[in-house]
Amino acid sequence: MLDPVRWKTRSGEILAARPAAGGEVPPGVLRIIDQTLLPGRLVYLDLERAEDIADAIRRLAVRGAPAIGCAAALGLAAAMQTVRSGGADYLRSLRERAARLEATRPTAVNLAWALRRCTAVIGAAIGDAPDSNAEELNARLRAEALDILEEDIRMCRAIGEHGLPFLHAGARVLTHCNAGALATGDYGTATAPLYRAHEKGWKLSVYAGETRPLLQGARLTAWELGRAGLDVTVLCDGAAPALMREQGVDLVITGADRIAADGTVANKIGTYGLALAAQHHGIPFYVAAPYSTFDPDLEDGEAIPIEQRGAEEVTRCGGFAVAPENAGVWNPAFDLTPAGLIRAWITDRGTARNPKELKTLCSDHE
Ligand SMILES: CSC[C@@H](O)[C@@H](O)C(=O)COP(=O)(O)O
């Protein structure tokens, strides 16, 4: 069984998208919040088979770079419970399931990072003891998956501490998409300093861009921050530059799906536009991410694979047609923000002011 790890807000509510969030979970099951139904309904999904876990990641029932890494690792551990043969057969089954999970979403590097960590650990265990049985290997795999989750929790907390100095009581903060508790194992990345500030009793004004086409900002960020007691205002994506000009914003902070060695950040579509608007208005733009989001092997950010998603995400909204069915659609899930537009990268290992510092902080990526 996957050990339950619980996280509660100050008001005592269980919030994060993590296994066991809804109570006791039977052996070999990954329990997640179905984020596609929020904020209307809080529904948990129990997933057992690698295909179902892959499907949940693909259709964004669980989403956000760190969360899909954790869910894939824990899901892999759950799905492997039914495998009976040990040794090389076990490794073959593991690699086959991991490949299926890794193929679901190409941009967020945390997914590949977590799955490769799991396969490497089992490869090494079998290298040391080729006759290991499935039970022993399952225990090792489960421990590694839980380690990934626990490390993510620690990283969120550390990002919160490193990001806190950029805030002050009364700060007006704009964020995009959902880089919060729902997107990680704990506090979130971009939201971690906001939760920390809130815990200290600082009153913030948080602005959440709605984040078309799937509205992660409006549906998820506004939901989770509101539940935790933060003051949150939702705006249409197109309203962000006017907000900066007319109401004033002290800083913009977003998460990341992958950061290349040159500091380029891939994040939810619309991030680049926010960074350009922030530069125009002299507003600092920060990116918060754990080291597992840094991809030191990718020198040039332009090489980050950008996931293209289905046309219906753009032509339909909430079940209604919002564009003609036959209109052409361009629907990249992410865009690239160059390093020159980023004031600092706030990581679990400290804050980097330029790509060189970032590489020094984060380059021992496993
Ligand atoms: C801490 S999550 C950072 C990013 O993963 C987040 O900002 C984002 O772009 C998520 O995109 P999504 O398509 O919802 O998975």
Automatic annotation (TrEMBL):
One annotated GO biological process: L-methionine salvage from methylthioadenosine
Binding site for substrate: R63, G64, A65, R105, Q216, N267, K268
EC number of this enzyme: 5.3.1.23
Signal peptide (from-to): none
Pfam families with a match to the protein in the record: IF-2B
Keyword field contains Cell inner membrane: no
InterPro entries: IF-2B-related (IPR000649), IF-M1Pi (IPR005251), IF_2B-like_C (IPR042529), Initiation_fac_2B_a/b/d (IPR011559), M1Pi_N (IPR027363), NagB/RpiA_transferase-like (IPR037171)
Top-level lineage group: Bacteria
UniProt keyword terms in alphabetical order: Amino-acid biosynthesis, Isomerase, Methionine biosynthesis
Residues the record marks as active site: D257 (proton donor)
Residues marked Transition state stabilizer (site): C177
Pathway assignment: Amino-acid biosynthesis; L-methionine biosynthesis via salvage pathway; L-methionine from S-methyl-5-thio-alpha-D-ribose 1-phosphate: step 1/6
Catalytically driven reaction(s): 5-(methylsulfanyl)-alpha-D-ribose 1-phosphate = 5-(methylsulfanyl)-D-ribulose 1-phosphate
Gene Ontology molecular function: S-methyl-5-thioribose-1-phosphate isomerase activity
Annotated family: Belongs to the EIF-2B alpha/beta/delta subunits family. MtnA subfamily.
Role noted for this protein: Catalyzes the interconversion of methylthioribose-1-phosphate (MTR-1-P) into methylthioribulose-1-phosphate (MTRu-1-P).
PANTHER family: METHYLTHIORIBOSE-1-PHOSPHATE ISOMERASE
Name the UniProt record assigns to this protein: Methylthioribose-1-phosphate isomerase
Gene this protein is translated from: mtnA
